[in-house]
């Protein structure tokens, strides 16, 4: 008797910790899109994306840049009259697309997140220079050059660490992480 | 003396060390001790939530548990760290199952979190624990003539703690007035700076920075005050990139509120990390000079 969960259910199930109304409470008022500082650059506005989730347009949702362009500023969430945690939904679709490897190849966001996560799991700390290879691979040489110039200016001002930091009780930390998500050998 | 557990976060070690220095100097001035957490870890910023919500909350909870072990409330100077710590504490209180699951993992480091402590952003310490009156009394060198744009950024106020003012706060303005400076009218003050979008979606992120700089400049600000390392780096270190991308010519200093406060309290600029800017803070001092000369 169990039927396959719809895409909308799948997204809802990905929001275990954060709270708020389910996406089908959306009244399509557009407050989120009007609030969003990145809306101009999104393939679909936040309002449309919520509508598309509710219509179970899975492929179209996953195929747009909207959720990877979300800066997680929560302004939409605070203002939504239906109490939907739109920023949380954006996070949920990011997770969905990373786990299912359905993100678009031309987007940097997913690679960046994965590189960031690996750094934190290995050392307990984040370290910007380790992210540089991801950056170089995905942006053109001009952007990378600009970034490098910026980085060296910051380096001169003593604003970039030379060595990656790590926490002291790293083994305990790694075991803690493993209790939440089982990791592969080389993570 | 009041004492808090202090979670500097990764950015404050180097990229925002001037925030770290000035935070310690200014709190010390008001007899508040910030005790750095021993062996804290990266809280995952916003990025961790892209991968796994429970793991993200676990990373945050480890730092919270370290503070709880000391029996101290937690203070974070970074708005993203603060928001994470605030949320995780809230989830722990609301959802015992989640708390149990995470505590099971924390056992690996002999830690446990019961969400008994409270979480504050550094600016709240000045607003609530010190208060505008005491700040006014402490000011040796009022920042007269300086117009400061109060940039709250997005993560401090969101999602509200059920207080209606979170759409129209004024405590940052009050803090600036207490320093003897004039708060600029800055309608974009709660708008997001783009955060880590600068690393992943460059042009939209630069555009977001441009909107903020333009608004501050249009409203006559001499300097933007921030309360978050991500905001500071985006607004300052990417200013030349904004100019290049959009043909603008912004040259607006961006300092931490603790640096400006420190100056007003008469603390030496080098103790406040002044001098590590990519956009020179000289215009700020020029504005203040005539008074000092008199
Ligand atoms: S603000 Fe809320 S109710 Fe309005 S369109 Fe957006 S998600 Fe739907
Ligand atoms: S959280 Fe994301 S979708 Fe919502 S307003 Fe901010 S950038 Fe836009």
What's the short version?
The complex is a heterodimer of chains A (187) and B (294). Chain A is mostly helical.
What features would you describe in this structure?
The complex is a heterodimer of chains A (187) and B (294). Chain A is an all-alpha fold. Chain A has 2 domains: 8-99, Orthogonal Bundle (Fumarate Reductase Iron-sulfur Protein, Chain B, domain 2); 108-180, no CATH class. Chain A contains 11 helices and no strands. With 294 residues, chain B is of the alpha/beta class. Chain B has helices at 17-29, 53-70, 79-94, 96-106, 122-130, 132-138, 171-178, 197-200, 202-218, 229-237, 239-246, 257-264, 282-293, and strands at 2-6, 32-36, 74-76, 119-121, 147-151, 182-183, 223-226, 254-256. In chain B, helix 2 crosses helix 3 (79-94) and helix 9 crosses helix 11. The model of chain B has no long low-confidence stretch (mean pLDDT 89). The interface between A and B is large, with 66 and 72 residues. One iron/sulfur cluster (SF4) is lined by residues 35-36, 38, 46, 70-76, 86-87, 90 of chain A.
């Amino acid at each position: 008797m169990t039927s396959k969960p719809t895409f909308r259910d799948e997204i809802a199930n990905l929001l275990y910790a954060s709270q708020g109304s389910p996406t089908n409470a959306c009244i399509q008022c557009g407050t989120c899109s009007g609030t969003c500082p990145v809306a101009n650059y999104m393939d679909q506005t936040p309002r449309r994306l919520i509508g598309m989730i509710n219509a179970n347009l899975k492929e179209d949702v996953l195929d747009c840049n909207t959720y990877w362009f979300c800066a997680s500023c929560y302004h939409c969430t605070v203002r939504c009259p239906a109490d939907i945690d739109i920023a949380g939904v954006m996070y949920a679709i990011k997770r969905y697309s990373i786990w299912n490897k359905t993100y678009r190849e031309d987007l940097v966001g997913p690679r960046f997140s994965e590189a960031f996560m690996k750094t934190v799991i290995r050392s307990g700390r984040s370290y910007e220079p380790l992210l540089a290879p991801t950056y170089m691979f995905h942006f053109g040489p001009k952007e990378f050059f600009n970034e490098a110039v910026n980085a060296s200016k910051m380096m001169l001002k003593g604003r970039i660490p030379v060595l990656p930091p790590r926490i002291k009780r790293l083994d305990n930390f790694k075991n803690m992480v493993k209790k939440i998500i089982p990791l592969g050998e080389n993570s | 003396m009041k004492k808090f557990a202090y979670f500097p976060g990764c950015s404050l070690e180097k990229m925002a060390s001037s925030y770290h220095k000035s935070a310690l100097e200014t709190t010390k001035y008001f007899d508040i001790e910030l005790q750095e957490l021993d062996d804290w870890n990266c809280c995952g910023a916003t990025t961790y939530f892209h991968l796994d919500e429970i793991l993200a909350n676990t990373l945050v909870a480890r730092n919270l548990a370290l503070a709880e072990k000391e029996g101290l409330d937690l203070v974070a100077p970074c708005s993203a760290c603060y928001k994470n710590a605030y949320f995780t504490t809230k989830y722990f209180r609301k959802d015992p199952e989640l708390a149990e699951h995470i505590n099971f993992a924390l056992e690996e480091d002999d830690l446990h979190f019961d969400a008994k402590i409270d979480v504050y952003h550094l600016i709240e310490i000045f607003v609530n624990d010190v208060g505008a009156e005491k700040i006014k009394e402490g000011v040796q060198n009022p920042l007269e003539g300086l117009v400061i744009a109060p940039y709250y950024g997005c993560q401090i106020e969101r999602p509200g703690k059920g207080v209606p003012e979170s759409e129209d706060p004024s405590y940052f303005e009050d803090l600036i007035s207490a320093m003897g400076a004039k708060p600029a009218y800055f309608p974009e003050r709660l708008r997001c700076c783009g955060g880590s979008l600068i690393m992943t979606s460059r042009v939209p992120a630069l555009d977001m920075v441009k909107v903020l700089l333009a608004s501050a400049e249009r409203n006559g600000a001499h300097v933007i005050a921030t309360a978050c390392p991500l905001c500071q780096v985006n607004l300052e270190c990417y200013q030349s990139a904004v100019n290049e991308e959009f043909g603008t010519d912004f040259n607006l200093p961006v300092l931490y509120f603790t640096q400006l406060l420190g100056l007003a309290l008469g603390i030496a600029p080098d103790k406040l990390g002044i001098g590590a800017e990519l956009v020179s803070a000289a215009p700020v001092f020029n504005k203040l000079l005539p008074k000092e000369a008199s």
